[in-house]
Design brief:
The protein has 203 residues and is of the alpha/beta class. The chain is built from six helices and ten strands. The chain has helices spanning 28-38, 47-53, 82-96, 107-113, 172-192, 196-202, and strands spanning 5-12, 16-18, 42-46, 61-65, 77-79, 101-103, 119-125, 133-134, 143-150, 161-168.
Amino acid sequence: MSVPLVLVAAVARNGVIGADNRLLWRLSSDLNRFKARTMGKPLVMGRKTFQSIGRPLPGREMIVLTRDSSFSPAGALVAHDLEAALTLAALRAAAMKADAVVIAGGGELYAQTLPRASRLAITEVALEPQGDVRFPPIDPAEWREVRREPGERGPRDEADFAFVDYERRASPVSSAHKAHGARKAIETAKASLHQPWIQRQEN
């Protein structure tokens, strides 16, 4: 059984998640939430996201996706393509007995993994900043909101926020199998119309 992918992100009202490789707000409550959601799990992230964090995070295994073959950060694992990163993350999740693999950004990685994800853990940030990195659109036909928790804004939070969880309405694998099965059924039905035994039964 494959380990589910969970995308964890803080997203502004206009879909922006960052600019110039940095966050555009300070939300201490969201950082605490991120820690709770990711502790004990492997985290997959792009090189720029890792560098913006600046260090490996305690209690988690960091897997950095980069095309730079010379990039070798202390305390983190490196993969040079998405498939390798997800395979490595699944292996580490099994070793850690983790119930999920977390995708932690940035925007390009979110877009690449959204079709494979089972759950989304989104912090909705009540701001509309200018930025060059966005979270991909969440299609309500594919995603069902299952939990919404209004955040309690603290003294170290620069904006109002809400924690929102989504689950996929149908798994990507199941949907693909169903579509393939439906196509095969149609092809079989079409072919059967030309079989002699069908024609004989009708006569």
